[in-house]
Amino acid sequence: MKSIIVLNGPNLNLLGNREPEIYGADTLADIEKLCMKKAVSLNIQVSFFQSNIEGELVNEIQKSKNKQDGIILNAGAYTHTSIAIMDALIATQIPTIEVHISNIYHRESFRHVSYISKATIGQICGFGIYGYSMALDAIIQNNL
Length: 144
Hints:
By secondary structure, the protein is an alpha/beta fold. The chain is about 35% helix and about 20% strand. It has a 5-stranded parallel β-sheet, sandwiched between helices. Helix 4 links the parallel strand 3 and strand 4. Helix 2 (about 30-40) packs parallel to helix 5 and helix 3 packs parallel to helix 4 (about 85-90). The protein is globular and about 40 Å long.
């Protein structure tokens, strides 16, 4: 059975309260429920990790080597700044899909740059929490 880890970065623990006009009313728990339901339908295992600390995300990526078949990553603001997360993804060579709840290309110009995308097989943004479900589909459809 395939095993996928869903990693969420800084401030995603505040979903449901943080800027609902941008991120909606869904919470991180809602994302996990959505992913668990999708995982059952796809016959895969899914686990979750969220941190506001860059080094903890790097550690989790590194620990995933030889344990996970894929990563779904919403690195939050670290998307636009973290060479360390990008390097960890490149080093582990785990197929990774980048997800963003909002459309980062319709927002401030600094959000248009993604260091993470240089280390991922694809990016899904702008579809709210359903981007996570789409990413799980993509992992399976691409035989990852």
